[in-house]
Amino acid sequence: xxxxxxxxxxxxxxxxxxxxxxxxxxxxxxxxxxxxxxxxxxxxxxxxxxxxxxxxxxxxxxxxxxxxxxxxxxxxxxxxxxxxxxxxxxxxxxxxxxxxxxxxxxxxxxxx
Length: 112
Description:
- The chain is mainly alpha-helical.
- It contains four helices and two strands, in the order ααααββ.
- Helix 3 (35-50) runs antiparallel to helix 4 (57-75).
- Residues 1-23 form the signal peptide.
- This is Beta/gamma crystallin 'Greek key' domain-containing protein.
């Protein structure tokens, strides 16, 4: 599992670092999912990720998926929660200066 996580992390970092021009471009510009579909995928992945204390591969993949879906939604101007907001209060909204944003540079926090 550690090799998979390392490979995924290196791949994502490589995408952002290898070419400065490519890093400035949207990673999901050609995605065909609607915003509602991406939010549903995020929620479904969250059900598997956030409700489990296991470090099984499927749980780790769900957690990585949440970040990827979140990053795709961020590219479309959607953010989940605001800084200093309690988790229970967080919801999807149009991004503003105080919004939380997803990052692909740290795909998995296995220490949860």
